[in-house]
């Protein structure tokens, strides 16, 4: 696609590790707080704004090891073995944007006096690195509900300022005289030149000029001293093939540059803890580079502002969010050494604080963990709990993994089970049979209704039937609307309709009747 | 943690709320002896003969006592003050109103307190002080004080420019200057979305927020020195700018200087060109030959990548060097002549042409001179009054003159406070942009001075349209695009024909809403519009007492009770009439006609952050709003419209004088001193002359020309010779 034109010269190409091996020694020497002989464990969080569109996001049916990834998950389906997909995470009821944002890393919207989980983890693993943690974002502050702009909070529960500019981050991490000998040399020669200048001006200066120049020279001298001190105790990053990212031309370039940098910062052990918001939780960004002209928040209310065109636009944005998660995982896998990949030694948390983006339910919040965390997580699984699990339980489980001495977090007192493969109580669905009866141009089919995996044709639905090909539903907008097909997505239904055959598959072209097996009617239940 | 970014979490110290420097309407009593506006001024000869051996204070038995102002002070005035004033203003544990007259002893201290003395004269003259419980001054004593004041602080004050002082560029000036040099703004990569606040400028984001200097303006960086932190941010910013400027690939901005660059690298000739160009622009004047030679030596003999790398470091050194980051560091005083300042010879003369160009461009644009202005300076053309005037007109017509509204205007009226009125950015943007667009219109379109207060033009958008019910229907309709929930909308210019309750700065909803309640509104008007400085209220001041059982007094009536206390009355007699006149507008800036009941009181109770005395009583019966009042000068009015008429008629000189002082202080980027007062007076008179001719006061264009031609703007004293 044209917007993906690669304008950056930075660490690009699928050439695998771009940094020379000496880095590894550097990291291992410094690894502290981790297993004595292994690389350090990193914690990375990627936040997705404006909840999800459940018909395209949710996994329905399936078991822990045998499940079908949803249409929205297709962009990162190739990482299935590195993922731990959690379901039934959240609280009962509904949630504002601001509350859901706080929930994402603080467990509960009322948990406002404590650090968020990333900061608690950073205080365990971040001490020996040049940057204890990085808090990053893509867009400006939303002052109307300030909580929408922050996921990371300090130990007083106050929001931590975020940074959005990849160039700025690059310079602070890799170009700072703190860790770059070439930069220090250059600064020294600038200091020499300017103090020469200042001194020669000073010789002919009057009293007022001289006072100013003296002040100037004293700043120059203390900067010199500082540089000398750094040089004496420095832990430089070897000058590698790193190049500074160019100024991004659009949001996609901005985010990909940042994801490149995050991976590199984690790999070079510049930091071990990063949070990155793909947008404020009620983001009104306009994704013009995707050809979308409407504001994201407007589109995310896909029911209230329903139109085919709006839904298509929302799904384009949602897919982009998923592609960025894929981008991050791919990048993290590309850094490897004899211990394995960077992803193998990281815990990545991806998701949101809200489930359904139109009615703001706090149930079935999208949460995916990725990476084995050096054995802390057992991936390649879909874990759907029997009932709602507060995010605080997940956070508590993460804190335990990172050896934090904490018995409760955000009103949760027991850690979420099952992350490392331990027992948990799975969700059990009421069993139902699936079958097809066909004849005479009509068909009656019973089974689970789902959205097509191909979101370019999001108006197509399928009913899965055990042991037989799925029945495709390709109907006019009228039927889609009258029978509220999207609402029944993921549940067991019985549909009667007009059928034709296309490429050996039964296709319903007109719905006559739709029954929900377990009796839920639109509007009678949450979500 | 890397912590950078937005300032919303811990709002930077707001410049806006710092009280403005002492300024007083009374100084128009200063006799207008000095006419010196315009180029080629001749200064009146000093009327006192030189008497320079008599510099020290307290030499009471000197033969020259009659001509020594300090001595006169010691013999006649100080005993008088000691008798009537020191008890409260100098002695004891508590110094009333933060005014300590006993401290003022040396000539320097006495002169520096010139505005305080005019306050003292005013309170003595109006019999406000000493307080009622104390004996009055006799008329002979008052006459004695007046005579001393006239001789010491009026008659002998000659206009005198300040010494040339280097001044660090403010963050805003630094940003503009870098942009002018490189041809692009340094920006942060951040997605812009509606209802979010984004600081796009990397300079404004990284540099510490400038506190306003002693003048009250941020361009006065005299109290804001260079620190290692600022140094590091400069270094970071210059690296960033040079990185972009010199980056391979299309080098459009660089080729403006070098011409087309063939191949991968610049030629040595082009690099020389770049360096010389940069020296001239960074120093904002042609560099001397030694500087150029030393600079060129750093890239001498180098080629290709090595050349560009050496060039980058040398360019960085130039942009980190003192002549770039400080204004006036290389300035000179041309041909200084000796004059006599109360017995002391003083040298001063015109500032050199490049200094004048720099003063003018930072005044009008907040930016360095452009090539046109620099060339005129190099060719010595700015000395031609016609050319100089044409340059001023050209610069005012340039969009960069928005600086006057965006910086000078915003800081003068503390308009950043409006951002706190609403959490909704499109709304607070609309409320704040309204006065800014209005001030820009006044300044750049050369409107009459007092349209500040009385104007028929407003700048309105859909968020502010509701405040203009009589005229809003003439606005061009605004329609949101499909899928857009909220967005900021630009203002439209609206002629007010049918909204009598609005017009001028004081009735703009954002301005009214940022100052809630009569006391804060009155204080703000007194300080920002009338130019008066008020001391902080005494610490032990009580709140306005709630209604006692059986009483049914309105907030205002209870306030009158409070004001009957003489300590309070000194300030509140000035504040309250102004503030209560604005009570026709509620805390949100909505109009509530006089005669309606005052619902303000009960609303204010919910306003937890309101600093004014709270109405703690539930009014049993609401009384009609009383917006009438009487100024200490005697004029009375029924409502704000009456007050408005007074401000633009009988009080016009006071308002104009304040306007003149503010803009002169901004233009000089420093606090005004006693020697600036003759300049202020002369400019005021000149503007009044315009008024007499045209039946109206002069315009902002007249004012800007007068300021740009004034003695302190065009002249300076050379620096003192260092003693090493």
How would you portray this structure in words?
The complex is a heterodimer of chains A (527) and B (724). Chain A is α/β, with parallel strands linked by helices. Chain A folds into 3 domains: 2-8 and 41-173 and 247-282 and 316-401, Alkaline Phosphatase, subunit A; 181-232; 435-516, Nucleic acid-binding proteins (OB fold (Dihydrolipoamide Acetyltransferase, E2P), Beta Barrel). Chain A is 31% helix and 18% strand. In chain A, the strands form 3 sheets. In chain A, strands 3-4-1-7-8-2-9 form a 7-stranded mixed beta sheet. In chain A, helix 5 packs parallel to helix 8 and helix 6 packs antiparallel against helix 7 (207-232). The longest helix of chain A has 27 residues, at 308-334. The radius of gyration of chain A is 27 Å and the shape is elongated. The relative contact order of chain A is 0.17. Chain B is mostly helical. Among the domains of chain B are: 49-155, no CATH class; 167-327, no CATH class; 424-430 and 469-648, no CATH class. Chain B contains 27 helices and 9 strands. Chain B has helices spanning 69-84, 107-112, 114-125, 139-155, 171-182, 202-206, 228-246, 252-258, 268-282, 289-297, 304-320, 322-325, 353-364, 371-378, 385-397, 403-412, 425-444, 509-514, 518-529, 555-563, 566-581, 600-606, 640-648, 652-668, 677-694, 700-709, 711-714; strands spanning 167-168, 326-327, 333-341, 344-351, 457-460, 492-495, 629-630, 636-637, 715-716. In chain B, strand 7 and strand 8 (636-637) form a beta hairpin. In chain B, helix 1 (69-84) packs antiparallel against helix 4 (139-155). Chain B is globular, with a radius of gyration of 28 Å. Residues 3-66 and 599-620 of chain B have low confidence and may be disordered. Chains A and B meet through helix 5, helix 6, helix 7 and helix 9 of A and helix 7 and helix 11 of B.
């Amino acid at each position: 696609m044209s917007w993906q034109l690669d304008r950056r010269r930075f660490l690009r190409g699928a050439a695998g590790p771009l940094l020379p091996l000496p880095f590894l020694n550097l990291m291992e020497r410094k690894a502290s707080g981790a297993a004595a002989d292994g690389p350090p464990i990193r914690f990375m969080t990627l936040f997705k704004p404006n909840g999800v569109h459940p018909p395209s996001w949710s996994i329905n049916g399936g078991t822990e090891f045998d499940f079908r990834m949803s249409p929205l998950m297709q962009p990162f389906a190739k990482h299935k073995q590195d993922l731990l997909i959690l379901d039934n995470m959240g609280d009962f009821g509904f949630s504002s944007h601001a509350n859901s944002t706080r929930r994402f890393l603080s467990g509960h919207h009322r948990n406002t006096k404590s650090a968020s989980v990333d900061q608690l983890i950073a205080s365990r693993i971040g001490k020996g690195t040049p940057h204890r943690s990085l808090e990053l974002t893509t867009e400006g502050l939303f002052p109307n509900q300030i909580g929408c702009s922050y996921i990371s909070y300090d130990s007083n529960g106050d929001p931590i300022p975020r940074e959005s500019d990849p160039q700025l981050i690059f310079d602070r991490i890799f170009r700072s005289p703190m860790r770059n000998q070439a930069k220090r040399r250059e600064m020294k020669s600038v200091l020499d030149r300017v103090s020469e200048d200042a001194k020669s001006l000073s010789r002919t200066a009057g009293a007022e000029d001289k006072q100013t120049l003296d002040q100037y020279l004293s700043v120059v001298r203390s900067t010199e001293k500082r540089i000398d001190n750094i040089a004496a105790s420095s832990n430089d990053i070897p000058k590698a093939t790193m190049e500074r990212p160019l100024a991004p031309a659009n949001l996609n370039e901005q985010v990909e540059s940042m994801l490149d940098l995050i991976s590199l910062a984690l790999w070079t052990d510049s930091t071990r803890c990063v949070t990155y918001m793909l947008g404020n939780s009620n983001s009104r960004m306009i994704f013009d580079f995707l050809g979308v002209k409407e504001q994201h928040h407007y589109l995310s209310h896909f029911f209230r502002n329903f139109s085919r065109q709006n839904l298509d636009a929302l799904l384009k944005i949602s897919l982009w969010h998923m592609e960025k998660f894929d981008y991050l995982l791919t990048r993290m896998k590309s850094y490897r050494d004899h211990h394995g990949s960077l992803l193998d030694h990281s815990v990545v948390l991806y998701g949101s604080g809200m489930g359904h983006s139109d009615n703001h339910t706090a149930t079935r919040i999208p949460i995916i963990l990725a990476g084995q965390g050096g054995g802390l997580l057992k991936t390649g699984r879909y874990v759907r709990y029997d009932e709602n699990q507060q995010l605080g339980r997940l956070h508590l489980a993460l804190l335990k993994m990172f050896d934090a001495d904490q018995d409760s977090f955000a009103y949760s007192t027991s850690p979420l089970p099952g992350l490392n493969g331990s027992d948990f109580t799975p969700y059990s669905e009421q069993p139902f049979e699936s079958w097809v009866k066909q004849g005479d141009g009509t068909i009656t089919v019973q089974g689970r209704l789902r959205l097509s995996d191909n979101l370019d044709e999001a108006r197509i639905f399928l009913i899965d039937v055990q042991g037989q090909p799925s029945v495709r539903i390709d109907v006019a907008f009228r039927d889609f609307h009258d029978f509220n097909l999207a609402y029944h997505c993921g549940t067991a239904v019985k549909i009667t309709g007009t059928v034709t055959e296309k490429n050996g598959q039964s296709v319903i072209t007109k719905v006559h009747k739709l029954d929900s097996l377990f009796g839920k009617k639109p509007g009678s239940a949450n979500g | 943690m890397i912590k950078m970014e937005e300032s919303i979490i811990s709002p930077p110290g707001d410049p806006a709320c710092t009280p403005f420097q002492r300024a007083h309407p009374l100084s128009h009593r200063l006799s207008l002896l000095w006419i010196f506006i315009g180029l080629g001024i001749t200064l009146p000869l000093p009327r006192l003969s030189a008497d320079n051996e008599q510099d020290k204070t307290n030499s009471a038995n000197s033969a020259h006592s009659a001509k020594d102002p300090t001595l006169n002070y010691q013999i006649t005035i100080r005993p008088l003050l000691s008798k009537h004033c020191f008890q409260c203003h100098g002695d004891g544990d508590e110094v009333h109103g933060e005014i300590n007259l006993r401290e003022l002893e040396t000539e320097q201290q006495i002169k520096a307190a010139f505005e305080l003395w005019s306050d003292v004269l005013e309170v003595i003259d109006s019999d406000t002080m000493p307080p009622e419980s104390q004996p009055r001054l006799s008329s002979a004593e008052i006459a004695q004080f007046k005579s001393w004041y006239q001789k010491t602080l009026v008659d002998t004050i000659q206009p005198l420019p300040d010494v040339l002082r280097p001044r660090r560029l403010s963050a805003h000036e630094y940003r503009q200057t870098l942009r002018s040099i490189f041809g692009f703004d340094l920006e942060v990569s951040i997605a812009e979305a509606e209802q979010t606040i984004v600081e796009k400028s990397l300079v404004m984001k990284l540099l510490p927020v400038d506190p306003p200097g002693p003048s009250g303006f941020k361009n006065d960086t005299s109290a804001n020195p260079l620190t290692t932190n600022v140094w590091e941010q400069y270094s970071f910013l210059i690296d960033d700018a040079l990185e972009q400027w010199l980056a391979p690939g299309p080098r459009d901005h660089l080729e403006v200087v070098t011409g087309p660059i063939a191949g991968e690298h610049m030629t040595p000739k082009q690099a020389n060109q770049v360096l010389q160009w940069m020296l001239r622009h960074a120093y904002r004047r042609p560099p001397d030959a030694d500087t150029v030679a030393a600079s060129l030596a750093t890239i001498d003999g180098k080629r290709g990548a090595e050349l560009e790398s050496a060039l980058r470091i040398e360019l960085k050194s130039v942009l980190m060097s003192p002549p770039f980051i400080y204004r006036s560091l290389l300035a000179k005083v041309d041909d200084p002549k000796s004059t006599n300042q109360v017995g002391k010879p003083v040298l001063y003369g015109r500032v050199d042409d490049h200094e004048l160009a720099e003063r003018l461009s930072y005044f009008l644009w907040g930016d360095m001179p452009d090539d046109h202005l620099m060339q005129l300076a190099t060719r010595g053309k700015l000395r031609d009054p016609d050319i100089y005037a044409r340059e001023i007109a050209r610069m005012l017509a340039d969009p960069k003159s928005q600086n006057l509204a965006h910086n000078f205007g915003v800081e003068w009226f503390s308009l950043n406070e409006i951002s706190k009125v609403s959490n909704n950015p499109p709304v607070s943007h609309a409320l704040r942009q309204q006065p800014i667009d209005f001030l820009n219109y006044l300044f750049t379109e050369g409107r009459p001075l007092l349209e500040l207060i009385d104007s028929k033009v407003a700048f309105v958008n859909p968020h502010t349209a509701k405040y203009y019910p009589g005229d809003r229907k003439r606005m061009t309709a605004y329609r949101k695009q499909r899928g857009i929930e909220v967005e900021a909308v630009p203002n439209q210019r609206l002629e007010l024909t049918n909204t009598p309750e609005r017009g001028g700065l004081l009735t703009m909803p954002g301005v009214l809403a940022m100052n809630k309640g009569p006391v804060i509104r009155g204080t703000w008007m007194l300080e920002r519009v009338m130019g008066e400085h008020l001391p902080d209220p005494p610490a032990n001041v009580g709140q306005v007492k709630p209604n006692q059982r059986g009483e049914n007094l309105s907030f205002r009536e209870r306030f009158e009770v409070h004001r009957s206390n003489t300590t309070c009355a000194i300030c509140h007699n000035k504040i309250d009439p102004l503030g209560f006149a604005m009570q026709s507008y509620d805390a949100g800036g909505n109009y509530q006609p006089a005669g309606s009941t005052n619902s303000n009181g009960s609303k204010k109770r919910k306003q937890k952050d309101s600093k004014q005395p709270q109405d703690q009583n539930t009014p049993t019966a609401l009384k009609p709003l009383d917006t009438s009042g009487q100024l200490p000068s005697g004029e009375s009015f029924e409502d704000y419209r009456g007050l408005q008429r007074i401000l633009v008629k009988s009080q016009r000189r006071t308002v104009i004088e304040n306007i003149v002082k503010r803009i002169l202080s901004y233009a000089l980027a420093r606090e005004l001193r006693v020697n600036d007062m003759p300049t202020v007076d002369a400019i005021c008179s000149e503007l009044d002359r315009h008024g007499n001719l045209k039946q109206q006061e002069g315009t902002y264009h007249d004012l800007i020309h007068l300021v740009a031609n004034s003695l302190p703007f065009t002249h300076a004293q050379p620096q003192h010779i260092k003693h090493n």
